[in-house]
Amino acid sequence: MENKVIQDRLALLRAKMQEEGIDFYMMPTADFHNSEYVNDYFKVREYFSNFTGSNGTLLVWKDGAGLWTDGRYFIQAEAELEGTGVELFRMLQEGVPSIEEFLEQNIQQGQTLGFDGRVIAAMDGKKYEKVLAKAQICIAYEKDLADSIWTDRPDFPAGKVTVLDEKIAGKSVEEKLTQTREKMAKDCANALLLTKLDDLMWLFNIRGCDVECNPVAMSYAYITEDTATLFIQQKALDTQVSEYLAAHHIDVKEYDTVVDFLKSLPAGNVILVDNRYCSYTLYKTLQKNQQLIEGKNPTELLKAIKNPVEQARMQEIFLKDSVAVTKFIYWLKTHVGKEKITEVTAADYLEQKRREIPEFLDLSFPTIAGYKSNAAMMHYEATPENCATLEPEGMLLVDSGGQYLGGTTDVTRTIALGPVSDEIKKHYTMVAAAVMQLTHAHWLYGCTGRNLDILARQPIWDMDIDYQCGTGHGVGYILNVHEGPQNMRWRFTGGMVEAVFEDGMDITNEPGIYIQGSHGIRIENVMLAKNDVKNEYGQFMHFETLTWVPVDREAIDEKYLNDTQIKYLHEYQKTVYEKISPYLNEEEKEWLAAETGVK
């Protein structure tokens, strides 16, 4: 079935490309800061492809178009691209070229590759430069071709900015600037161009609302040894925020003056830039007369290690959030089949339970509620017009989280609503085993997620099954639900970052099994890395769990578990009951006792 709307938009884009002398035009999923999630204003790739996932790049040429995305989105992308004329390129699959390889094979000498340089990371722009240089390919990066075609484009975001109290942040702006400057000095830089939105919010102890579910404000900063300049939309600042920034000696300039500011800098500064988040446009601006040190934002690691105040508040918030999720599971199990519940109304009920928590601010991402085969799509999102009705059979996967004044949560549970097959029980049991094995990791300082990933993946690999995504990611503190540099995955490709686990870093633990057309299973907790015994062999470490939501006992078949896995699971369930039951009524408490096997 043809998608005429997308085909017509692509036809208009190709006409514009011809007018501008552009042979290939690229549109990533990014804003001017290479953010993972973006405001509707920046959803150009979605506008021209119909693909709604959070990761993907669209490439358009005279007689074709291709979308590159990762394993989380293969099923979703296949469905959404149908009839558009856009071909799906499954990243990292055998025989599938990367975008660079595709361009190298298909673009002809003397042709032009175009993109909006503000939404292409400097790292990627440089990569395309290198790949295409030998074929004398031109790069045109100064025009957003979508602007004249997308006539009803949403307004540029400019939400209200708020100040995060130091009692909640745990550190003052001055302390954070001092730490940042110390790291700049170690990199031999006398200035830092900071462009990553959550790093900017962390550094200045402010929060915004320019991206759905991510409390960030469109901004840049230029930090020197003794000055801090923040580029932000002044209309987003009220008197209180302006006075706060002035009191902390932060010079405020209008957001869209950053290019002119950088052009006006005297030559010869040694400026640290993180090419993963600095746009190609800003990079090319600085490259003309400044010395650039290309490294990681020093704020990234500082932000990832949660300070004692943050850790204490996270423990409080995660407990409250876990109570809300547990109450939701009880409601779902006792009401399914007795009243009409859909994927959407189930997600709405869970959101309402979170809203009852006094510190609640927003969801940390749109809830993923997938019933039966819908759960096989890792980032499925139901809509009121297109959602499944739940029945007292099969399983519902719910991946959700909240933004609170005191933390950001991310939790997944797959819930048995009635009878499930023996195959699904086996898969669910082994996912639970995978979570518990990683929970009990004990390691010597110096390990990264690549070292520990096998603990979660091994029970699933033993069945000759894999989940085509990472096992874990860092989580922000009243910030983005996905945060680095820490992560958990077994395979690293060029450009990927891995980081040693430090005391105070958080990480998700979320293995899963996804069988297309049948079912999807994921169980996810958040954990804190903590120092353990230190002796002559070095510093040992372990994880402390933050999430306390029961694992579904109805879907567990212990015949598939070894004694250690059974012990770990029983210990977790017992702790869930001890921590959660004081906040439940008698009926909920009785159910939880049975669910966790306490009685």
Question: Number of helical segments?
Answer: 18
Distance between the termini: 55 Å
Oligomer class: single chain
**Count the strands?**
28
- CATH first level of the largest domain: Alpha Beta
- CATH architectural arrangement of the largest domain: Alpha-Beta Complex
The percentage of residues in β strands lies in: 15-25%
Average pLDDT score: 95
The total tally of domains equals 3
Largest sheet: 6 strands, mixed
Q: Strands of the biggest beta sheet: in what spatial order?
A: 4-3-2-1-5-6
Range of helix content: 25-40%
CATH topology of the largest domain: the name is Creatine Amidinohydrolase
Explain how this protein is built.
By secondary structure, this protein is α+β, with helices and mostly antiparallel strands. The chain has three domains: 4-148, Creatine Amidinohydrolase, Chain A, domain 1; 162-303, 3-Layer(aba) Sandwich (Creatine Amidinohydrolase, Chain A, domain 1), CATH 3.40.350; 305-596, Creatine Amidinohydrolase, CATH 3.90.230. It is 35% helix and 21% strand. The chain contains 18 helices and 28 strands. The chain has a six-stranded mixed sheet with strand order 4-3-2-1-5-6, sandwiched between helices. The protein has a six-stranded mixed sheet with strand order 12-11-10-8-13-14, sandwiched between helices. A four-stranded antiparallel sheet has the order 21-28-27-24. α11 (280-287) links the parallel β13 (270-273) and β14. The longest helix is centred in the middle third of the chain and has 28 residues, at 308-335. 48% of the residues are buried. The mean pLDDT is 95.
